[in-house]
Design a protein that fits this description.
Layout (H helix, E strand, L loop, with lengths): L4 H34 L1 H5 L5 E2 H8 L3 H13 L4 E3 L4 E3 L2 H7 L8 H4 L1 H6 L2 H10 L11 H12 L4 H5 L6 H7 L2 E5 L5 H9 L4 E6 L2 H14 L4 E5 L5 H4 L5 E7 L8 H11 E12 L14 H18 L10 H12 L3 E5 L7 E7 L1
Parallel strand pairs: 4-5, 4-7, 5-6, 7-8
Antiparallel strand pairs: 1-3, 2-3, 8-10, 9-10
Helix pairs in contact: 3-4, 15-17
Length: 359
């Protein structure tokens, strides 16, 4: 008889090691989120070694909490310490990845874990009873997504994303009408309105908080070519004004909609015959087995269950989910009426696909 114990044991040991490591990394993400939100990471970046008391005084925080946070970051091998002087420092190469000193601040993304974990009981109820978790249960989500957009969209907007559609920059400089659906806090629109004063920009979003923030920023910047409106886009297929815009954009804005098919049909309806629909959405497959190699697959499915899918279901919607995938995205775009669809990826962004669509 063949004894399979030895064959199975290494795989079992490896899986156990992965789970233990995941538990440890989960703690690191919580600590990193706290370090980002309290300003501790920024306060340590580029600075010489400092004691917990001095760091607490610098940041206006309680020393006992600062000291425990430092202990966790030392255990995670992020912060270094000198036991002789009871001092701590954040090495420059790590600060470049955890603060605004580098090209991308990865501490921004650590916020997703505690944010989504706060609705676990709500999601558990949905597993048992159905339905979804409404947007109102995520008071900070728009803020976190604006920080995310600030690192994926804004740095590449003018040099990488808009040039994906040949001639689009020139049209924006000459003056066209632009709509951003599910615009959130509207940071992309704010940047474009400032860069292209001859064009007119409109942003729609369901969140009153996000639109209020965007309007305040536009007023503060003196942008008169930009308008934001609180709008439910679940009936956009019938309420969109035909031929109203030469350019429509969505940045990670389709997969959590209650009625994504209707929104896409409305976008097609709202475009002029020579218009362009520019889409940024999650890079994934529509087939689970093809997501095994996705570098952020498990994370993005967790985001889907804890936010994107469930907020759609809370509206009685389709519950498309974060990982709807390129295949389904192409099918939905074709169903909406788009015939010329090109898909791109940008080197700086492993998380998203970019679709350039024409009627």
């Amino acid at each position: 008889m063949c004894d399979t114990t030895l064959a199975i044991q290494p795989t079992t040991d490896d899986f156990e090691a992965r789970l233990v490591q995941a538990l440890n990394h989960g703690g690191l993400l919580l600590l990193t989120s706290l370090g980002y939100r309290t300003g501790l990471l920024e306060a340590m970046a580029g600075q010489p070694p400092i004691t917990s008391q001095a760091l607490a005084e610098r940041t206006g925080l309680q020393e006992r909490y600062v000291r425990e946070w430092l202990g966790g970051m030392v255990a995670a091998e992020v912060v270094e310490t000198d036991s002789a002087t009871a001092s701590y420092w954040l090495p420059d190469e790590r600060a470049a990845l955890l603060t605004d000193r580098g090209e991308a601040n990865l501490a921004v993304y650590a916020q997703f874990m505690p944010l989504l974990g706060s609705v676990e009981d709500d999601v558990l109820r949905c597993f048992r009873e159905g339905g979804g978790v409404p947007y109102s249960r995520y008071p900070r989500f728009q803020e976190v997504m604006a920080s995310d957009s600030g690192q994926t969209v804004l740095p590449a907007l003018f040099d990488g994303i808009l040039p994906l559609a040949p001639g689009l920059i020139e049209r924006l400089e000459s003056g066209i009408r632009v709509l951003d659906c599910a615009c959130g806090r509207g940071r992309a629109l704010l940047a474009m309105a400032e860069r292209f004063p001859a064009s007119r920009f409109t942003g729609y979003d369901l969140s009153e908080e996000a639109i209020g923030w965007a309007r305040a920023q536009a007023e503060r910047a003196g942008l008169t070519n930009l308008n934001f409106e609180v709008r439910d886009l679940s009936d956009f297929d019938t309420t969109a004004t035909p031929g109203a815009f030469e350019l429509v954009t969505t940045f990670d804005g389709i997969h959590d909609q209650g009625q994504p098919r209707r929104l896409l049909k409305g976008i097609h309806r709202s475009l002029t015959s020579d218009g362009i629909y520019l889409v940024q959405d999650i890079h994934a497959s529509s087939h689970h087995h093809l997501d095994r190699e996705h570098p952020l697959g498990a994370m993005l499915y967790a985001v889907s269950i804890s936010h994107c899918m469930t907020v759609s279901l809370a509206q009685g919607g389709e519950g498309l989910g974060t990982m709807w995938g390129r295949e389904r995205a192409l099918a939905y775009l074709e169903e909406a009426g788009f015939r010329d669809i090109q898909v791109h990826q940008l080197e700086h962004d492993i998380q998203n696909d970019y679709f350039v669509c024409r009627p």
